[in-house]
Amino acid sequence: MAERFIVEGLGGKKVLKGEIKVGGAKNAILKGLAATILFEGDVVLTNVPEIEDVGAECAILEELGATVVQKDAHTYVVNTDGITHSDLPDELARKIRASIVFAGPLLARFGKVVFPHPGGDVIGPRPINLFLDGFAKLGATVVLEHDSYTVTADKLHGTDINFEPISVTATETLMMAAVLAEGTTILNNAAREPEITDLAFYLNECGAQITGAGTSTITIVGGGMLHANGISYDTPPDRIEAGTFVLLGALAGEKVLVSNCVPEHIEALTTLLKNSGVKMEIGSTYIDVEGCEAPKSFDVTTAEYPGLATDLQPPLVVYLTQGTGVSKLTETIWKGRLAYTADIVGMGAKIELADSQHATIAGPTPLRAAELKSPDIRAGLAFLMAAAIAEGTSTIDNVYHIDRGYQHIEERLQKLGLNITREQA
Predict the structure, then answer these.
(1) How many C-beta atoms lie closer than 10 Å to residue 294's C-beta?
(2) With 0-12 CB in 10 A as exposed, 13-18 as middle and 19+ as buried, what is 156?
(3) Which of 17, 56, 81, 222 is the residue whose CA sits 20 to 30 A from 332?
(4) Domains, the chain, ranges and CATH?
């Protein structure tokens, strides 16, 4: 049943205070779950976030024949020995973009995978040619029929693959496929996100031979199936969640402690905020942030890691509506990602789009309450932030999208002092 959030705005007051703990990274666990297909025997995954996309991926694994046991709220045990086929369930696979990462391990292990064009957030065109071209270079045959792809190969063979443009998900998917391929695969112009480094480190602990993760060139020497041998995959902290909470603290906090994070993973953001006037104490696993009374505007461009993550762009735009002066934002990753700004304008913001990838934001502008509907994970959370600093009471419908990436968000924000409730729509 559809649900919505009711948010009583703070009217620009800096009153939120307390600690908010960052959960496991969505963009890491979804790849960690897919990687279990490369293993014989049990794989234990810990610090798993309680989000909708985890449930969707677990359902895909079970549909394939795997066993998924939830030991507690954040610990899962997955065994893929019983997988009986490699056709991804159509309806489930279309729900989330990350379903495509299953294609790499399934193809490598079974010599065949069938999957639909993946779904996910509506944030612009999301072609999968990098995946298909990569599979072909590894020796597979790709056939498209009725919006479904059938990829087959007697055995994958190591090769050189060049990514243009850089793609996080393609890097991860082809890295996993290469783990079971014959020979050596080199991924050039590979993505460098921390989640990739973390996944490669775990796979290496369990028998893979991957070097260069975290750089633009990753080398994989193929081998046999992996074995966890009791080593668990500990999901790293979610850097997007950490950055979002830091932005909320800067906007509406008296003093907010963002804990259980890796500050260096969001250094691109914290550097911008420091220059904007935000006071922060940064430790090894925390960021203590104070609300900024008169933040300075700045220009910013999203980029692949270590640049500013595109997933932090929507909450950053909300922050910039309160900046003094004019900010210019360039979105380089997803062409349709700025569409949500029309709703922020409806709340009183002064945002002008030159095109689908360039925005000018003038501030500071007080925001007023509105009735909103989440279009995707990150814009939905940005709407929640906008509602938090607005004057009056806002409603945010379609919160399923927010739940896909942020666990129990209303309970965590209530503890900081925000008046937010969840109800049936």
Answers:
(1) 10
(2) buried
(3) 56
(4) 3-23+237-424 (3.65.10.10), 26-221 (3.65.10.10)
